[in-house]
Design a protein that fits this description.
Elements lengths: L4 E3 L6 E3 L1 E4 L17 H13 L4 E3 L8 H10 L9 E6 L1 E2 L10 E2 L3 H15 L6 E4 L9 H14 L5 E4 L3 H10 L4 E3 L10 H9 L3 E4 L14 H5 L15 H20 L4 H10 L6 E5 L3 H7 L9 H14 L13
Parallel strand pairs: 3-4, 3-12, 4-5, 5-8, 8-9, 9-10, 10-11, 11-12
Antiparallel strand pairs: 1-2, 6-7
Helix pairs in contact: 1-2, 1-10, 4-5, 8-9, 8-11
């Protein structure tokens, strides 16, 4: 299947407007897991997405404390090299194998990043990582210039094809850009969590690609989530303690999800697809990372790849954001050129 693509900044990579997110593939047993997950189901979901035309997979070293990268490598087995998707991963979070539930440390020292890239290359079983991203700003005393310089060096060495930042603000992006071009940004962005609009605007002005994460706000905007499900989340699921899944904020978020349903019906698609398409309507957004635990879940959001929301749709969603009071940030996208 041929799906729409957009250029990922200046990297030369043309990526589909939706990509497979492999966070949940890391399984349970660590601080920010999505609960237990069957590896065979993860492999099946990734392969199903690739067969459907998705041409990139996003993971991170910390997901499952290395396990997600290993699952992604297993999913690539048997797929001809020419048909394999781009593999994007992240660095800068170091964990303690003796205490997997301890929060990962945000480390940016060049020596640490040099160790990390070798470990990811080994787990992913690749010679070059297509996009390598600093997961969070460092908190170990390393300056942004230190870790961004290290990523640029890895790019020169050919260990990575492109270098990006995740969860960095406009000021940090500008500092990095002064040292060497930022190929991409990975910010959190959804109709609920809209504060990254400023960073997305910066990227549009600097030819930096943007792959947003959690466009369905961790399941809240799928149309299949309700208060009962929120209350029954597995104790190993990070969402169980997240404020967006509790009390008044949960009720506002679910009200917004319900407001997306009429838009979905007009387009004969799913609520999930509308939630993702809303992020893709923003100028500067290249693609959206969407997770799945099974092939069936992939089918639920795949229609977003080709869904273009109308001005009326966007106005209606913007009004629903205002009336429900869900989240914060601008409610109407700056339209794509």
């Amino acid at each position: 299947m041929t799906l729409p693509t957009r250029p990922l900044g200046k990297t030369g990579m043309e990526i589909t407007t939706v990509g497979f997110g492999a966070w949940a593939a890391g399984g349970g047993g660590w601080a920010y897991s999505w609960g237990p997950q069957d590896d065979e189901q993860s492999v099946a979901a990734i392969r199903h997405a690739v067969a459907a035309g998705i041409n990139w997979v996003d993971t991170a070293a910390v997901y499952g404390l290395g396990h997600s990268e290993e699952v992604v490598a297993k999913a690539m087995e048997g797929i001809p090299q020419a048909d394999r998707p781009y593999i994007f991963t992240k660095c800068g979070l170091r964990w303690d194998d003796k205490d997997p539930y301890a929060p990962a440390r945000r480390v940016g020292s060049p020596a640490s990043l040099a160790e990390e890239v070798e470990a990811s290359l080994r787990r992913l079983q690749v010679e070059t990582i297509d996009l390598y991203q600093m997961h969070w700003p460092a908190e170990d005393g390393a300056a942004l210039e230190d870790y961004w310089g290290a990523l640029l060096e890895l790019k020169q060495q050919g260990k990575i094809r492109a270098a990006g930042l995740s969860n960095h603000d406009v000021a940090q992006l500008s500092r990095a850009e002064a040292l060497g071009h930022v190929d991409s940004l990975q910010p959190p962005f959804s109709a609920i969590r809209r504060a990254s609009a400023a960073e997305i605007g910066w990227c549009a002005e600097h030819s930096t690609g943007v792959i947003v994460y959690s466009p369905m706000q961790a399941g809240l905007l799928t149309g299949a989530f309700d208060e009962q499900r929120a209350a029954s989340l597995h104790k190993d699921d990070w969402r169980a303690g997240n404020p967006e899944f509790q009390g008044e904020r949960l009720r506002r978020n679910l009200a917004l999800a319900a407001a997306l349903r009429p838009v979905a019906e007009r387009h004969s698609t799913t609520t999930a697809a509308v939630a993702i398409a809303w992020t893709l309507a923003w100028e500067g957004v290249t693609g959206a990372i969407v997770g799945a635990r099974s092939p069936e879940q992939v089918d639920g959001w795949l229609p977003a790849a080709g869904l273009v929301l109308t001005g009326q749709d966007l106005e209606e969603i913007g009004a629903a954001i205002g009336s429900t009071g869900a989240g914060e940030g601008p409610a109407l996208p700056r339209a794509r050129a």
